[in-house]
Amino acid sequence: MTAATLRHLLGTRDLSCERAESIFETADAFLEVTRRPIKKVPTLRGKTVINLFFEASTRTRTSFELAGKRLGADVVNMSLSSSSTSKGETLRDTVATLDAMHPDVIVVRHNASGAAHYLAERTRAAVVNAGDGMHEHPTQALLDAFSIRGKRGSLKGLKIAICGDIAHSRVARSNALLFPTLGAEVRLAGPRTLLPRFVDALGCKSYDRLEPAIEGADVVMMLRIQQERLGGASFSTLREYSRVFGLTVDRLNLAAPDALVMHPGPMNRGVEIADDVADCDRSLVLDQVEAGVAIRMAVLYMTAAEAGADLHAT
Ligand code: CP
């Protein structure tokens, strides 16, 4: 396997700086393709991509579908409700069934942490993790880093504050693993009840208040409360959470004067982020969405290549 190919993309823990840079350079070329009037190249013609989304998604699912189609691949989309999982079929039988159809890449989102690894052990296809439970969301981390790189040139020496529901966030974990590899300092902030033990293992600085985490930061990334994964009471009320942990203009003023504002989406406006911050000219929210298509094109290209594709030149 070379730096220009990927067998699977399951997480960011084992992604080297060199490999990440190779993904970014490939995405640079595909970003240019996505901005053309005709947004299609024959790079993955004859290849099959299955998008298996067992959890709700707007950004990730749409951008993987667009990415595959813009590369000329045959793209099949499956959701929980439209698959035989809704009739009781197991994930093991689902992956065996799909594998028998010889897909080149399976993109999977699932509510179980480890689901992408489970698939990777049971299919000949390349597997791309599009978010597994509270574990990882590697293409989100790559698109976040790519968006910052687009504005700042590199992540080297940047202070990046990731704030909110860290405990349940696969985005926080994937970013906290990737950003230091790229030379950034990561600060994680949230209520003590939403700061998990993995914070220490990651070697990131952690804060149970927003202000010291944001102070002097070059990038402030806000996360939503993952209501669907909260086991019990982690804070009193959303109103109280917002009062203490919401990003307002006053709080953003504690960061570096040109600090970038990020959010992976979906945003809960008025809870973790105020409207005027979400829509300010330093907000990268929509840049992140645009970057998502280019990064996912790059990841499909590099995984399909490792799956043995005879690729056509772009
Ligand atoms: N950021 C993200 O994963 O958004 P979706 O859930 O809409 O895909």
Task: Characterise this structure.
By secondary structure, this protein is an alpha/beta fold. The protein has helices at residues 17-34, 59-70, 91-99, 115-120, 138-152, 170-181, 198-202, 210-214, 238-245, 249-252, 275-278, 285-306, and strands at residues 48-53, 74-79, 105-110, 126-132, 159-163, 185-189, 205-207, 219-222, 260-262. The protein has two domains: 17-137 and 289-306, Aspartate/ornithine carbamoyltransferase (Rossmann fold), CATH 3.40.50; 138-285, Aspartate/ornithine carbamoyltransferase (Rossmann fold, 3-Layer(aba) Sandwich), CATH 3.40.50. Helices cover 38% and strands 14% of the residues. A five-stranded parallel sheet has the order 7-6-5-8-9. A four-stranded parallel sheet has the order 2-1-3-4. Helix 5 crosses helix 6 (170-181) and helix 5 (138-152) packs across helix 12. The two termini are 21 Å apart. Residues 309-314 have low confidence and may be disordered. Bound molecules: phosphoric acid mono(formamide)ester. Phosphoric acid mono(formamide)ester is lined by residues 57-61, 131, 140, 264-266.
What does this entry show, briefly?
The chain is an alpha/beta fold and 314 residues long.
Provide tags for this entry:
314 residues, alpha/beta, Rossmann fold, 2 domains, five-stranded parallel sheet, four-stranded parallel sheet, 12 helices, globular, binds phosphoric acid mono(formamide)ester
Count of distinct structural domains? 2
Number of DSSP helical runs: 12
Secondary-structure arrangement, i.e. CATH architecture of the largest domain: 3-Layer(aba) Sandwich
CATH class of the largest domain: Alpha Beta
Query: What fraction of the residues are assigned to beta strands by DSSP?
Result: 5-15%
Ions, cofactors and other ligands present here are: phosphoric acid mono(formamide)ester
Uncertain parts: 309-314
The major pleated sheet works out as:
5 strands, parallel
